[in-house]
Specification:
mainly beta, 4-stranded antiparallel beta sheet
């Protein structure tokens, strides 16, 4: 195991490397300040991080699936004592696909910022206009079906407690919710509580059952959550609601669209592909501001190539590559940024038992 690139925002870090561990000695002048350590390397590997007053120990647990050419990227972000902005929403750990079947045209009508209440998404199929029982909703990633309600009809036009919905539990503690299905379309698709399903599994048809505003017409209401208790979140069966205090809302990382996240006004042709949209990416000079999001996904490499790339406090960033990520000295992730770099493919995150 060798370190390919180490980017410190703190000067004079002493780093000791072996095949099984990495020790970072913390300079005396910053020992009372906070570090965020992100170790990003080949999937199927595991690591433990421990910090004492004067050092950080990262111990590796390598699996047999690691490729010899894989590199490790270590990022040390120095916290400060000043008031900083934090992103309102974090990016998902998992990778997801579009929750519509391939070939559909989809419009994002509300995103995690513009939706009221925030953190949710509204989207709808558009190629045949507003219509029930045509647009196919599919699982955005593999998981276990935990809740299904689809026996409500369209007679209730402003009553969220009569939603038709599905909740799916994914790996890494993340749960997704799909709402406003046509009556009985989920059960007719053969979906039942306890089923293990794969990314792309047909769940039912888009409609507007339980929509709280008739103006939205037929659409999919989508949420991605990180429950405080992922093994048993307190979901209200009447409407399928999970209180914001019981689980954070996440921004899903979407594999098959160019920018890899949803924003109000986006029009998307669903491909259903599990491939990366790029082979290699050279990140150009840019600044991502407060509440901004920047995601790069590539099957090969992501390099900053000495360009000035700045993630300001309150922003979200992800570099996700199949082979190598190189952060050069003009890369800056300010305190208050949520930034990750990781190695893996672009397929929707798999679930055990789903091949």
């Amino acid at each position: 195991m060798r370190v390919h690139d180490t980017y410190p925002l703190v000067s004079d870090l002493s780093i000791v490397i072996s095949s099984q561990y990495l020790i970072v000695s913390i300079p005396p002048d910053v020992r009372q300040r906070s570090f965020v350590v992100k170790a990003c390397f080949m999937r199927y590997s595991r690591f433990d991080i421990k910090r004492s007053i004067d050092r950080i120990l990262i111990q590796f647990f390598m699996s047999q699936d690691c490729f010899p050419r894989s590199r490790l990227v270590i990022c040390f972000l120095l916290g400060t004592t000043i008031s900083i902005a934090q992103p309102d929403f974090q990016l998902s750990t998992n990778v997801y696909r579009m929750p519509f079947a391939a070939g559909h045209q989809v419009h994002i009508s509300q995103d995690h910022i513009t939706h009221d209440p925030p953190g949710r998404y509204d989207m709808d199929g558009t190629e045949f206009g507003d219509i029930c029982n045509y647009y196919q909703i599919v699982a955005a990633a593999g998981g276990i079906v935990r809740y299904v309600v689809d026996d409500n009809d369209t007679s209730c036009t402003s009553c969220g407690a009569f939603n038709n919905y599905v909740w799916i539990e994914h790996v890494n503690g993340e749960w997704s919710k799909y709402t406003h299905f046509s009556q009985n379309s989920v059960s007719q698709a053969g979906i039942s509580v306890g089923d293990t399903i794969c990314a792309g599994t047909f769940l039912g048809f888009e409609c507007h059952v339980g929509a709280t505003s008739p103006a939205y017409n037929e659409h999919l209401h989508f949420e991605l959550r990180l429950p405080n208790n992922p093994s048993n979140p307190p979901i209200d069966p009447a409407g399928g609601f999970l209180d914001p205090a019981d689980g954070a809302h996440l921004i899903p990382v979407i594999n098959s669209i160019g920018k890899h996240w949803w924003e109000q006004g986006d029009d998307i042709t669903v491909s259903g592909s599990n491939s990366c949209t790029h082979s290699n990416i050279n990140a150009g000079t840019q600044t991502i501001g407060n509440d901004g999001v920047k995601i790069y996904m590539a099957s090969g490499n992501i390099h900053t190539n000495s360009n000035t790339v700045v993630f300001q406090n309150g922003s979200n960033g992800l570099f996700h590559a199949g082979d190598e990520i190189l952060l050069t000295p003009n890369f800056h992730a300010q305190a208050g940024t949520s930034f990750s770099a990781r190695i893996g493919n672009c397929a929707a995150t798999q679930f055990p038992g789903c091949n």
